[in-house]
Amino acid sequence: MLAERARRSLPGLWAGLMLAIGFVAAPTLFALLDRAAAGRVASRLFAIEATASIVLCVVLALLERGRAARGAAAGEGSRVTAELMLVLGALFCTVLGHHAIQPMMDAARAGQGAFSFGVLHGVSSALYAVKLLLVATLAWRASAGP
């Protein structure tokens, strides 16, 4: 029962975290602080969000695998569900955005690398938006019922 509640609640909390950081905190930082300070704080907030996202992906993947295994054993579907694919998609976006693109952005800020900071920031923002869409879809599906 607790696992099912967590499976239904965590995606909504995760989406709220992403919205709060991406659409409230980061824009506020850039409105109030100088660009360099706002960038440092925003980078730290997005690093915290990425860590939380990886933890939530692992927890939700385990919860969803358990639910899917029980359903498959009862003859009610596959072990690979749409919800599991949404979680894995969010994990992919997190790892690519934070662990691949972010270091490239740091290098571009220092004048190194093949891509400009603006291009990399656009890619990072697009990955964040895709991840938010995946997590919001997961939250919507989790709230819909069994």
In short:
With 146 residues, this protein is mainly α. It has helices at residues 2-32, 35-73, 82-109, 117-143.
Give a count of the beta strands, DSSP E runs of length 2 or more: 0
Into how many domains do the coordinates divide? 1
Low confidence ranges = none
Radius of gyration computed on alpha carbons: 17 Å
Mean pLDDT: 94
User: In DSSP terms, counting alpha (H) and pi (I) runs of 4 or more, how many helices?
Assistant: 4
The largest sheet, given as strand count, sense and whether it forms a barrel, is:
none
- Give the helix proportion (percent range): over 70%
Tell me the fraction of residues in β-strands, as a range: under 5%
Gap between N and C termini, in Å?
13 Å
Q: SS-based structural class?
A: mainly alpha
Topology order in helix (H) and strand (E) letters = HHHH
> What would the principal axes of the Cα set say about the shape?
elongated
Keywords:
single chain, 146 residues, mainly alpha
Give the helix/strand layout.
Blueprint: H1 2-32, H2 35-73, H3 82-109, H4 117-143
Helix pairs in contact: 1-2, 1-4, 2-3, 3-4
Characterise the protein shown here:
By secondary structure, the protein is mainly α. The chain has one domain. 86% of the residues lie in helices and 0% in strands. It contains four helices and no strands. α1 runs antiparallel to α4 and α2 (35-73) runs antiparallel to α3 (82-109). The chain is elongated, with a radius of gyration of 17 Å. The protein starts with a helix and ends with a helix. The model has no long low-confidence stretch (mean pLDDT 94).
